[in-house]
Structure formats: structure tokens, C-alpha cells
Amino acid sequence: MKIDFVSDVSCPWCAIGLNALEQALARVAPGIQATLHFQPFELNPTMPPEGQDTVEHLAQKYGIDAAQIAANAEAIRQRGASVGFTFGQGQRRRIYNTFDAHRLLHWAALVGAQQQRALKHALFKAYFTDGLSPGDHAVLVQAATDAGLDSVEAQRILDSDTYAAEVREAEGYYHQQGISSVPAVIINDRHLISGGQPVELFERALRHIASEGAQEAAA
Fold first, then answer.
1. Do 210 and 28 touch, CB atoms closer than 8 A?
2. How does pLDDT run across 149-190, given as a tens digit for each residue?
3. Residue 193 DSSP SS3
4. Phi, psi of 5 (to 5 degrees)
5. Nearest alpha carbon to residue 122 among 114, 83, 13
6. Exposed/middle/buried for 119, CB within 10 Å: 0-12, 13-18, 19+?
7. Which end of the chain lies in a sparser environment, N or C, as judged by fewer CB atoms within 10 Å?
């Protein structure tokens, strides 16, 4: 089973959705095996390098006040905890540009699916748990190192525009496919599950799609 996980490293529901999906995959194993491919999506492609205050950004984008933002953050924290992801209290103070993070993720995929998955987790942790900037090259190199990738090569990529065209092409493809919010979980290029869904929903979907595929193969 092929799974394309379209997401941004600054999307809290993407962190929740990934942990929930992985737990669902563990439940259906070994009967159902899947390979995850992480595809790029930027929630804020025009964000400047210095970023923007989180409360200011969310208030402008969604028209909500500080109290609503705080309530939403607590709900997200609780959902994260339910699937084993830790959102650091008060750590997400700024929203940052994530394009360079997506360039590293593209490179990691060329190294191997396991390395790309490890880097995705490292980037989520750096931003949401530790409050670090996913636009900071030092943070990105450390995340790459933590994921078992070559730190020298990671720095070389970040110091250049390597994989910029490939990332933009992939982003354009998913926009053309109608993806406008993330996470978007695309299974076998045919089935779309949107949002950070509960483990049980992912599990039911995986079982149903696998059964459907088996019936088609036997027909």
C-alpha cells in the first residue's frame, strides 16, 4: 500500500494525523503493509524569514481572538497527547517559513523512506515540542542529523537552492489535484482522507481499502 502524506511541518494537525496514522498502521500489521511518502505543502508560502507572532498571525488569518487561540491550542495539545505527541506549552510563539524544511525532506526521500519519516518526526518535534524555528538552518541540520542523515550534505543543500524546483513542482501538483488543506492522506493514488483523524478512522479506512484492493485483484 502506498500512502502520500501531504503536509507542512508547521501544521499541528499534521503532527497529530501522522501519529494517528502510524498507530493505525501498527494495528493492521502485518496483514497490511504500507510505505509512507511525505509530500510538501506550505501553509504560509509568503512568510518572511523572521516569521510572525503566532497570536497575531492566527488572529489575522482566522479572525479569532487570543482567548479562542488559547482554547484551540489546549484542544490541540490534548489531541496530541492522546496519540503520543507532545506539544510544548507556550513553545509555538512564532510561525515560520518552511520551504527549506521541505527541500531537506525531498532529499531525505531520495536517501530512503525510513530516513524521510525520521526527519519528518524530528522536524515536528523541533517546532511543536521544543519551540525551534523550522526555517533556521542550524535547527534543520540538527534534525537531519537526528534522523541519521549526513549533516555535511544537509548543510550543502541548505546553502544552495538544491531541490527548490522539485519541491515547487510537487506543491503545484497537489494544488492542481485540489488539495487546499492538510494533512491530506492519499492512499494508492485514489483514496483521500483529510485532516488529523482519529486512529480508529484511519484503521477502518486502511482495512476497507485493502479489502477492496484484494477483491479487485481476485476479479
1. yes
2. 999 999 999 999 999 999 999 999 999 999 999 999 999 999
3. strand
4. -105, 100
5. 114
6. buried
7. C
Strand, helix or coil at 129? helix
Q: What pLDDT score was predicted for residue 10?
A: 96
**Cα dihedral 198→12→144→38 (10° resolution):** 50
pLDDT at 49: 87
**How many CA atoms does the CB half-sphere of 93 hold within 13 Å?**
6
- Write down the domain spans for the chain: 2-218
Least Cα distance to 99 among 57, 29, 131, 51 occurs for 51
The predicted structure's pLDDT at residue 144: 98
Q: Angle at CA 5, nearest 5°, toward 3 and 11? A: 160
Residue 110, Cβ density class (10 Å: 0-12 exposed, 13-18 middle, ≥19 buried): exposed
Which ranges of the chain have pLDDT less than 70? none
What is the residue type of 72?
N
pLDDT at residue 19, as a whole number: 98
Alpha helices in the chain (DSSP H): 12-28, 54-62, 66-82, 99-111, 113-124, 137-146, 151-158, 164-176, 199-218
CB 209 within 8 Å of CB 2? no
CATH of 2-218, one of 3.40.50.1000, 3.40.30.10, 3.30.43.10, 3.90.226.10: 3.40.30.10
**Residue for grid cell 488529523:** 196
